[in-house]
């Protein structure tokens, strides 16, 4: 059976890399946008139609079509997948789904695509929580430098006196809750557990995803042929430098997540790339 593949909450965990590599395969289509940003709105009880201006008119028009004719959009994408004998996966890599959809929404998602004769499959990738939060900070700062969007105004460093590290530390203090929100994997993992067999799900760390054969595991889960790795398919966002004390603040705010993950990883222990952040909790 052909599939609809989506991501749970996994921002800054390799989803752009994964989308670009899977996008080279003739077996996968994403409707023309890596992130649909569609289902939190679709399942909302207070839908408000609005034009999403990202500066990319092709994607903006697509998302407007999603919202103005949502059911027709989904039916059309299902027809595209079914009409092409080589294509077997329709993909939406919107990392915020795990945070903004309830377990009931996910069950509705499975039923929705079952009605379109597509089997829903979920994927979640987890990066060291502190490193994920720092990477998100880097993304916001870089976007604030290059894009004139009101929602990015607070991430600009020009309004701070002192060194860039000091300015970044103040951003950490000010936006700590926002930076750590998607690093709290426990809630998302509990949703996956609650789904049982409703939606088969693949959960991997980024250590596993980027290891030799990691992409093959994803291809096997989606039941598509082996996917070639594009060495240029990397997110080029500069990694910011924050003080050790700021890292420690982020780690301490995520201590409950690390304790939850300690139970999740069990006897295998934490991935090696997570260990430096664990030291910050001591």
Report the structural category. alpha/beta
Q: Which second-level CATH architecture of the largest domain applies?
A: 3-Layer(aba) Sandwich
| Count of structural domains | 2
Number-wise, the strands total 5
Give the H and E element order.
EHEHHHEHHEHHHEHHHHH
Strand content: 5-15%
CATH fold-level label of the largest domain: Rossmann fold
First-residue to last-residue Cα separation: 49 Å
* Tally of helical segments: 14
- Give me the Rg, rounded: 19 Å
Secondary structure blueprint with pairings:
Elements: E1 3-7, H1 15-23, E2 28-29, H2 39-42, H3 57-68, H4 70-83, E3 89-92, H5 97-100, H6 103-114, E4 119-126, H7 129-146, H8 164-180, H9 185-195, E5 201-205, H10 206-209, H11 214-222, H12 244-253, H13 255-265, H14 275-279
Helix pairs in contact: 3-4, 7-8, 8-12
Q: How would you sum up this structure, described in words?
A:
With 282 residues, the protein is of the alpha/beta class. It folds into 2 domains: 3-127 and 184-222, 3-Layer(aba) Sandwich (Rossmann fold), CATH 3.40.50; 129-182 and 236-279, no CATH class. Helices cover 50% and strands 9% of the residues. It contains 14 helices and 5 strands. It has helices at 15-23, 39-42, 57-68, 70-83, 97-100, 103-114, 129-146, 164-180, 185-195, 206-209, 214-222, 244-253, 255-265, 275-279, and strands at 3-7, 28-29, 89-92, 119-126, 201-205. It has a 5-stranded parallel β-sheet with strand order 2-3-1-4-5, sandwiched between helices.
């Amino acid at each position: 059976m052909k599939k609809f593949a989506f991501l749970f909450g996994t921002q800054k965990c390799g989803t752009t890399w994964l989308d670009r590599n899977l996008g080279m395969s003739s077996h996968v289509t994403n409707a023309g946008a890596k992130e649909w940003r569609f289902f939190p709105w679709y399942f909302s009880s207070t839908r408000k139609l609005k034009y999403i201006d990202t500066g990319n008119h092709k994607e903006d028009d697509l998302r407007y079509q999603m919202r103005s004719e949502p059911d027709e959009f989904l039916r059309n994408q299902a027809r595209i997948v079914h009409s092409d004998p080589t294509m077997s996966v329709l993909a939406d890599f919107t990392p915020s789904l795990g945070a903004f959809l309830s377990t009931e929404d996910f069950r509705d998602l499975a039923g929705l695509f079952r009605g379109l004769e597509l089997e829903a499959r979920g994927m979640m990738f987890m990066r060291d929580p502190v490193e994920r939060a720092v990477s998100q900070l880097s993304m916001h700062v870089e976007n604030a430098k290059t894009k004139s969007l009101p929602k990015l105004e607070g991430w600009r460093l020009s309004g701070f006196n002192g060194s860039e590290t000091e300015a970044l530390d103040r951003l950490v203090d000010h936006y700590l809750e926002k930076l750590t929100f998607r690093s709290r994997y426990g809630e998302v993992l509990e949703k996956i557990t609650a789904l049982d067999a409703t939606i088969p799900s693949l959960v991997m760390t980024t250590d596993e995803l980027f290891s030799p054969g990691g992409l093959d595991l994803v291809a096997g889960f989606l039941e598509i042929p082996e996917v070639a790795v594009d060495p240029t398919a990397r997110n080029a966002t500069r990694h910011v430098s924050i003080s050790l004390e700021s890292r420690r603040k982020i780690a301490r705010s995520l201590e409950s997540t690390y304790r939850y993950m300690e139970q999740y990883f069990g006897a295998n222990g934490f991935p090696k790339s997570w260990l430096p952040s664990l030291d910050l909790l001591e």
